[in-house]
Write a structure and sequence with these properties.
Blueprint (H helix, E strand, L loop, with lengths): L16 E3 L1 H7 L4 E5 L11 H14 L4 E7 L3 H13 L2 E7 L8 H8 L3 E5 L4 H4 L3 H10 L4 E4 L6 H21 L5 E6 L3 H13 L4 E6 L4 H18 L11 E3 L12 H14 L8 H13 L9 E5 L16
Parallel strand pairs: 2-10, 3-4, 3-6, 4-5, 7-8, 7-10, 8-9
Antiparallel strand pairs: 1-2
Helix pairs in contact: 2-3, 2-7, 3-4, 7-8, 7-9, 8-9, 10-11
């Protein structure tokens, strides 16, 4: 069914899937592999590029000329939205929760280079800014634009199905590599990627435990949001049968909060870098990497239990954490 949906082919797909031999030996997992959605292509890659292929396709089909989305100051989603807008010849307006920094670094710098218009809201967050979208869309329409609204993280039905399609891509890679994981571990923010993978596993009848490591919200809140996203997607696309999803979310690694750097996350980032030459970010994948390592060392993941770590990207935020290089 995914071939029938409007889509802008922007990502470099399929992204690689390969074994983490050194890290696996270090933490005691015989078959530890990684899916590299940090390598989806334009603007440093990341998981949102998959979603934005379908979003841009839908926007173009509706004759829209401007992408409007929301996020935090260093939002990876906003950076990728700015990139696909630039490539697609569209205007991009980013609503960012937080104070405008004196110095532009990381994703903020890249947004500016990509030509995005950034509006800063000091008293808002990415999640509260979602509520402003309707009013801003009306204002932009009054100015003569034809805008397309994208909620934080593209957490909407058209942003969910790309990760159902990604699960099909993964399944083909499983067969080619004779690797069939018991579980997939990934970082979770707005929940769209997790919802899509769960949906894809259901459609393909795959028995895989998909574990979302939430980086900010409680497990109960994320489960509720993922459940809602799946229900909305099933309602939107009649070809998908309704089902009762198994939603597994772990909130043990939130730590001090969203984007707060901690020793355990630093150690996880360093282990991936020194053992595999792979960079994680402090906000999302670093926490998921820490979860993987601690679950393995604690025996929650057995040595003979094949495991896949899903890398969702986010490396540009590394350049906003100068303390990572300090001892």
């Amino acid at each position: 069914m995914f071939d029938d949906l409007p889509r802008a082919r922007l990502a470099f797909l399929p992204t690689p899937m390969h074994r983490l031999k050194n890290l696996g030996e270090s933490i005691g997992i015989d078959q530890l592999w990684i899916k590299r959605d940090d390598q989806t292509g334009i603007s440093f890659g990341g998981n949102k590029t998959r979603k934005l292929e379908f979003v841009v396709g839908d926007a173009k089909a509706k004759k829209c000329d401007t992408l409007v989305t929301v996020g935090g100051i260093q939002s990876n989603h906003c950076r990728q939205t700015a990139a696909v807008a630039a490539v697609s010849g569209m205007r991009c307006i980013l609503l960012l929760g937080g104070e405008e920094p004196e110095e532009y670094t990381g994703n903020i710098l890249l947004n500016r280079m990509l030509g995005a218009e950034m509006k800063f809201f000091p008293d808002e967050s990415a999640f509260t800014l979602n509520k402003r979208l309707d009013g801003i869309m009306d204002t932009l329409t009054d100015f003569g634009l034809t805008p397309y609204a994208i909620p934080a993280g593209a957490a909407m039905p058209v942003g969910i199905v790309p990760y159902a399609a990604a699960m099909d891509e993964l399944n083909n890679q499983f067969k080619v590599n004779d690797f069939f994981p018991d579980r997939i571990i990934l970082a979770v923010g707005t929940g769209g990627t997790l919802a899509g993978l769960i949906l894809g596993a259901h459609m393909l009848d795959l028995d895989i435990d998909i574990i979302g490591i939430t980086v900010s919200k409680s497990a109960d809140q994320v489960k509720e949001e993922v459940q809602t996203l799946i229900e909305r997607t099933v309602q939107t696309y009649s070809e998908i049968e309704s089902f009762t999803p198994k939603i597994n979310v772990d909130d043990s690694f939130i730590g001090k909060g969203y984007g707060m750097l901690e020793d355990g996350v630093v150690s996880a980032i360093e282990m991936f870098a020194k053992m595999e030459g792979i960079f994680l970010d402090p906000v999302y994948t670093g926490k998921a990497g820490l979860a993987l390592i601690r679950m393995a060392l604690a025996g929650v993941i057995k040595s003979d239990s094949p495991t896949l770590f899903y890398h969702t990207g986010g490396e540009p935020t590394l350049f906003t954490y100068s303390e990572l290089g300090q001892k």
